[in-house]
Amino acid sequence: MLAKSSTELVRQKNSVLVLTALRRHGPLAHTELSDFTKLSSATISVITTDLERAQIIEKAEHQTASGRGRPRVLFSQRRNCGYLIVVIISSDAVQYSLVDYAGRLIDRFTEDRQQTVSNVASFVRGLRDALNRIVVRSRLSRDKIMMISISSKGLVESSEPVLRWSPIFGREQIDFAAVLRDEWSAKVILDNETLLVAAAVGRLEENKKGRDFRALAALSLGHSIGLGVVRRGDEGKLQISAPNFGHMLHMPGGGLCRCGSRGCIEAYAGFYAILRTAFDVPLDTIPAKFVPVAELDKIATSARQGSRRNIHAFRQAGLALGYGLSRVLSLHESMPIAITGPGTRYYDLLLEGISEGLAESHVVRMEGMPELRVMADEPTLVFEGHLNRALAMMDDDIVRSGVAVAELNEQTV
Amino acid sequence: MLAKSSTELVRQKNSVLVLTALRRHGPLAHTELSDFTKLSSATISVITTDLERAQIIEKAEHQTASGRGRPRVLFSQRRNCGYLIVVIISSDAVQYSLVDYAGRLIDRFTEDRQQTVSNVASFVRGLRDALNRIVVRSRLSRDKIMMISISSKGLVESSEPVLRWSPIFGREQIDFAAVLRDEWSAKVILDNETLLVAAAVGRLEENKKGRDFRALAALSLGHSIGLGVVRRGDEGKLQISAPNFGHMLHMPGGGLCRCGSRGCIEAYAGFYAILRTAFDVPLDTIPAKFVPVAELDKIATSARQGSRRNIHAFRQAGLALGYGLSRVLSLHESMPIAITGPGTRYYDLLLEGISEGLAESHVVRMEGMPELRVMADEPTLVFEGHLNRALAMMDDDIVRSGVAVAELNEQTV
DNA sequence: GATTTTTTTCTCGACAGTCGAGAAATTTAG
DNA sequence: CTAAATTTCTCGACTGTCGAGAAAAAAATC
């Protein structure tokens, strides 16, 4: 059964409300906070002084005197309240970013991964080194890092930061919490990359449409195929999930996939799969680990010039996606689909197959063709998603622990 | 953005907590309520006296003096606080049940639907008549009916009580809210039948395993195919959804389905589809509206005696289900599957195909074969599901409106 | 039968939270 | 220098939950 409610919980929730308003709209004055949160002015006063005393927010130094009347004082997060490290693992590199509590990027570097060595042990060594490096370089104390937010393609455990399966490491699991526990007190979270894209796009949509926004799917096309779904939950919150779409069954007994199964969607729509179809390689060939985009570009231009076989390859890929998407829509509800990733450059070639695949299903016949839209800049969306999720979690954690602790400190002073 | 929190909301939530405990465990004493809800004794006192004054709960007449000490006084719902009508629409009949606030069945009757006439207008007339009849027969005042909970197979709008598509009425939609608005002030809700099965089974599982329960799918086999999914949500609540599983795409360009599309799962695993395969009827034959179970029984016994063709028919059905389920598990997570409905009598014949279909997918290779379990008594589960959902909603509504109103009445006295 | 023990329920004061209204602060306009 | 405008702060009222102990009521004991 559900937990009981209490007055302290009320305060916690309303404090988080204030912090979220600050995240969404940047520095805000007392009055604006009251407007956004619908809390009374008196309550805002109490909460802000609490948060200020707890060193979580601060009043802006110079207030812009705009218009007459008593000048507003803007509240904003204290940047040094805590820090976040974002780790984005992609097939050929790992990007590390250090971000402060206000969401400002402080430091960033990218480490290339050697494609030959996809050894978990060496990857973990690299991860540890890089994390150490970024924190040393910043001259921050280690325990100021409150959260490490990691993303990868592949299958992620929902409750713990465990990578169950990934295109890079296969079935070699990585438990990031276990790996980092001894060196870091920070909370470690792990999300599927396309889930973060969905989170970011969902946020954008909600900003635009407000409560009218119902649901959206983000489809990432590349060497592997990812899907993230955002839907409005029962209580109005947005709920995000990352279906294992790339390895959903497309064709029983079909082409061999990188995952070892047969007939996955990825085995028809992933870059290596398109290549395989284009070159008429037998479907049970062990797929290439990595396909240079230039290779695929060649096939695409030849397809655009009329090459039957290459057109067919993209069409097959599109069909696999279309059928798969139709199944997703059956299982959830009809929703717009935002397409990202390097594969969007072949959108013109894929579209026909996608549409045809979608069109056959009962949902689409009922609800009509869902809106398809291309969103080019996937890396930015992934990073946005990281910030959205991780910083919101930090707000939550800080309110739960921070205020109480800080007030205890106050008392002893 | 989320709504703000307030002390009144706290009281509401905790009141609901008390009512839910009463639902779950039957009549409870002050002490037990305190134990179950983790609320302090003092709070329980305040809440119970409030609810009692608002005529929502009452103290039991005769308290059983068991053991020494001050005897417990048991609280229970006031039966006449409000009533619920449950309407279960199935392919050949509609069942009406009148239930009081404590969940006790007061009256029930079943109306046969003529299979020839599947006319929405006449159905609606029948519905209105039957609802009137059940309330007149009970001698209750019309406005004592607080809720009408309807279920059907098919596709249901999630936010409104609108039947979008059903095996009975096809694409002729029914907006039950609109239909009943003029005669009834009661809240009208509509759920997919298998969703209710899932809700009921999920409740049972949670009672057994508590917080360890993660997720479960209920699969209903019959003339049509239904699926309900229960999963534990972010905040620990159980979330229920009814994917449009029967009409998820199984085989592109495949057999013609009752819905008019081709290749739906139902077009391979529904009763009419099994018949079609068994008799080698062309796959684009317009499917029979209704198949007597005796017909299918014959095919089954012949299959059990070794008839190749009939074994094949059930195997095809099993495969369609297995592939479909594998896709559901890909899209959510691996979870046990509870199988209900009249089709369970052919479980022995279907199992091989189901298992084979499941086994091919990436999820099952990763997580192992999900637990399959047969739950025979579907009608009971559907009714249980109705009660679970509708009465919980009534608790919620009553607390939100009832307490305040009743207290106003008090003041005027 | 009176007293003690045990168990349950009720009550009181302390403390935490939100809110509306109006006071206080502070700048611009005239 | 005063009035108007605007924002922030403060006070008292109200509603919550909680812990501790009083009150109630039956069984056990002397």
TrEMBL record, chains A, B:
Signal peptide, first to last residue: none
The record's annotation in SUPFAM superfamilies points to: Actin-like ATPase domain, Winged helix' DNA-binding domain
One Pfam family, short name please? ROK
Q: Which family does it belong to?
A: Belongs to the ROK (NagC/XylR) family.
Protein name in UniProt: ROK family transcriptional regulator
Q: What is the lineage of its organism?
A: Bacteria, Pseudomonadati, Pseudomonadota, Alphaproteobacteria, Hyphomicrobiales
